[in-house]
Recover the amino acids of this structure.
């Protein structure tokens, strides 16, 4: 499924794990048993650095999820990081969806995952008024 040109023409010998455009090759995606390689390729794909990916608290869980799947491609790996689930599967844990990168892209939180703040129940919602 990867839309990557893995042909060896014009190979610049940068790395066998990344294609000419910097996107990991199929071989690089298959070779992710090593946790550090997994983080490195995940950072290249997601645009978040390795520290930010670790800070989600999901790096090891996502690595285990990836290793449980025979078919690996960059779309599935991106889906795992952004949504918290392998494509067409439920989240790997209750917190996986809440910690997905999609929420960080707009500094939001998954519905029901963060309290609205102490005392917020004491005031009517903005624009709500009394009925």
């Amino acid at each position: 499924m990867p839309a990557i040109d893995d042909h060896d023409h014009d190979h610049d010998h940068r790395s066998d794990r990344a294609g000419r455009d910097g996107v990991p090759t199929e071989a690089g995606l298959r070779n992710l048993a090593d946790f550090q390689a997994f983080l490195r390729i995940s950072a290249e794909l997601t645009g978040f650095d390795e520290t930010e990916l670790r800070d989600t608290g999901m790096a090891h869980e996502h690595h285990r999820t990836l290793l449980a799947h025979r078919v690996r491609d960059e779309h599935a790996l991106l889906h795992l990081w952004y949504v918290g689930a392998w494509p067409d599967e439920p989240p790997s844990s209750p917190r996986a969806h809440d910690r997905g990168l999609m929420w960080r892209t707009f500094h939001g939180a998954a519905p029901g995952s963060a309290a609205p703040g102490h005392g917020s129940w004491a005031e009517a919602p903005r624009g709500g008024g009394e009925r």
In short: Residues 43 and 111 are 26 Å apart (CA to CA). The chain is about 40% helix and 0% strand.
